[in-house]
Amino acid sequence: TVYIGSNDQSVHAISAKHGAEEWQFNTDGHITASPAVANDTVHIGSHDNNVYAVDATTGAEQWRFETRGSILDSPAVSTDTVYAGGKDDNLYALDMTSGTKRWEFDTGGEIHAAPAVTTDTVYVVNNINNASTSLLRALNTGDGSERWKFNSAHPAYSSIAVANGSIYIAPDSINVFALTTGPNQTKSLEYSFPEL
């Protein structure tokens, strides 16, 4: 099954084999990012300020969590937690089963890019200074405490990627940054393209 968010304020489940619609789940706002699917559940962020969990088979709502702003990009899902951020500047860590808030972190600027999560760290990037620059932060998945931050000096609208111990962000259409996390949860700039 393919799950698609749409400007018609709905998520559509489409058969990958036949292309027939299996179900439709309606929200009260545009959905401008891909759903995140884990444990037979579709996780959705909507411009109606809510994060939703929907049964992947039936399309029945399992829970919703209301934030204070539109959710602009995809949630990130770990073993038991859903991470989502949006226009209210906050990153939320939600219990995957119940939708209960575990913690929130005020980034100080709108979050336009999907977070990325590893075993013990969630990475989030937000725009600041009237969207003229952005901050990438590494947060503890357990309590949301900040481990480090990196100022890219460019606005960020694309998702974060994590692979082989490196964190990659492309904050605009020109620049790419690769950072490495050290053993003491410190960060270093591995490289940038173009070079700084």
What does this structure look like?
- Strand 10 and strand 11 form a beta hairpin.
- The chain has no helices and 19 strands.
- It is mainly beta and 196 residues long.
- The strands form 5 sheets. The protein has a 4-stranded antiparallel β-sheet with strand order 4-5-6-7, with no helix packed on it. It has a 4-stranded antiparallel β-sheet with strand order 8-9-10-11, with no helix packed on it. Strands 12-13-14-15 form a 4-stranded antiparallel β-sheet, with no helix packed on it.
- The mean pLDDT is 91.
- The N and C termini lie far apart (43 Å).
Structural class, please? mainly beta
The number of distinct β-strands equals: 19
Question: Globular, elongated, flat, extended or rod-shaped: what is the shape?
Answer: globular
Return residue spans where pLDDT drops below 50 for at least 5 consecutive residues: none
